[in-house]
Design goal:
Layout: H1 7-11, E1 17-21, H2 27-36, E2 40-45, H3 49-58, H4 67-73, E3 76-79, H5 83-95, E4 104-107, H6 118-122, E5 126-132, H7 141-145, E6 150-154, H8 160-169, E7 173-176, H9 182-209, H10 215-233, H11 241-244, H12 247-260, H13 265-281, H14 287-297, H15 309-312
Parallel strand pairs: 1-2, 1-3, 3-4, 4-5, 6-7
Antiparallel strand pairs: 5-6
């Protein structure tokens, strides 16, 4: 043994054997990134054709084996399965004795902290929750995108340094998230990333109907500038007819949407109300201009009723799909839900990178409308001086998460 090891060897953490349970879009990319840092992927589980292809592309030469064997071979195991499958998977692995004492067990769900790993922790595993706030494609480009990517990190205090070291080795930036704050953290990422995709896709459809030949090229510079402004300035970056109080323009928008894209009306009204609320709160929308605007936003819904809270959401909460992360963020239809022998296969109902809850506003306690004449219905933005005017700041953080 060399009695005087080099500084580089002294400073580098111990190299680990790495296993992946669930070769969806996230797991192989993280394992490939850890491989670049000097760790050694030794096993991966996956049953679908897409999973097999991803493992072969990102982790060439690494054998595909059942989940229990992944744990038998690896010091560090990445559990990259959908949120709703995670608890059953962990329970099954612990119940069948697959978990080894001292083994690092890492999940990438944005929704959960380390409590979901409790059955494995009781068996001696070291629990970590590392959620990359990024969307994933399932290709080698994901490894490059991890450079500078924020990770939502939750771990016991004694493992905090180990968790942060792993994130840094993957090129990411650790952000500590308390166990109790994980669902809110994940909801914020879904609002910022998942629903952004819906809005952009809908905008491109409407531009196509309006005769625009290249809606993507038209939207690209506009959306890039809007995102940059929002990240820099928050609500101060609000522009457009709602923030200006141009009720006539908003009324024209709603009329055209009812005629050409009625399915887009509810979303437009909901976002307009939220925008008006924030614009009022931050002094961008003058209260004297808000009254007429709010009358427009309280107009009849597509079914002939009024555009109240239920109408604004289509009468139900929007469904959630994988981030993966997300994180959260990726297409979790490809994620595997393999189980060790004896463990029950969980049914998947949500994407691992999308939360399974929505943020609702209680009309009974929601914001009130500035003074105006005439009756109105539905939730209202508040006056800046109203005691109920505070609205949660769902800052522009995260990816798909």
């Amino acid at each position: 043994m060399n009695p005087h090891p080099s500084i580089e060897a002294q400073d580098r953490p111990a190299r680990l054997t790495v296993g992946v349970v669930g070769a969806g879009r996230v797991g192989p990319a993280l394992a490939a990134s850890l491989q670049l840092a000097g760790h050694r992927p030794v096993a991966v589980s996956g049953v679908s054709d897409a999973s097999v292809r991803r493992a072969a592309d990102l982790l060439p030469g690494v054998p595909l084996v059942p989940p229990a064997e992944v744990l038998a071979r690896a010091d560090l195991v990445l559990l990259t399965v959908p949120d709703d499958a995670l608890a059953d998977l962990v329970h099954g692995l612990a119940e069948t004795g697959a978990v080894r004492p001292g083994q690092l067990l890492v999940h990438t769900s944005g929704r959960f902290g380390t409590a979901v790993l409790e059955p494995a922790t009781r068996a001696g595993a070291l629990p970590l929750a590392l959620h990359p706030a990024m969307t994933f494609t399932g290709t080698s480009v994901d490894v490059q995108r991890l450079a500078g990517c924020a990770f939502g990190v939750t771990a016991p205090e004694e493992l905090r340094m180990a968790a942060e070291a792993l994130v840094i080795e993957m090129g990411g930036e650790p952000e500590w998230i308390a166990e109790s704050a994980r669902p809110l953290y994940h909801a914020a990422l879904a609002i910022g990333a998942n629903y952004l995709v819906t809005l952009v896709a809908q905008a491109m459809e409407l531009l196509t109907k309006a005769g625009v030949r290249a809606p993507d090229r038209m939207l690209g510079p506009l959306l890039g500038a809007a995102l940059d402004n929002a990240l820099r300035s928050g609500d101060a970056a609000l522009t457009g007819p709602v923030a200006r109080g141009d009720a006539g323009t908003v009324a024209a928008h709603v009329a055209e949407l009812r005629k050409h894209a009625p399915q887009a009306v509810a979303g437009y009204l909901a976002m307009a109300r939220t925008t008006a609320d924030r614009a009022l709160t931050h002094g961008l929308l003058k209260p004297e201009l808000a009254a007429e605007l709010l009358d427009v936003l309280a107009g009849p819904a597509p079914d002939g009723g009024t555009a109240g809270p239920a109408a604004s959401s289509g009468g139900q909460a929007p469904s959630d799909l994988p981030s993966g992360t997300e994180g959260e963020a990726e297409d979790e239809r490809d994620r595997d839900r393999d189980r060790p022998e004896g463990a029950e296969r969980a049914e998947r109902s949500t994407d691992a990178d999308h939360p399974d809850r929505t943020v609702d506003t209680d009309p009974a306690s929601g914001p009130t409308r500035p003074e105006s004449t005439g009756p109105s219905e539905g939730p209202r933005p508040t006056r800046p001086d109203s005691p109920d005017s505070a609205s949660p700041d769902l800052g522009p953080h995260g990816g798909d998460a």
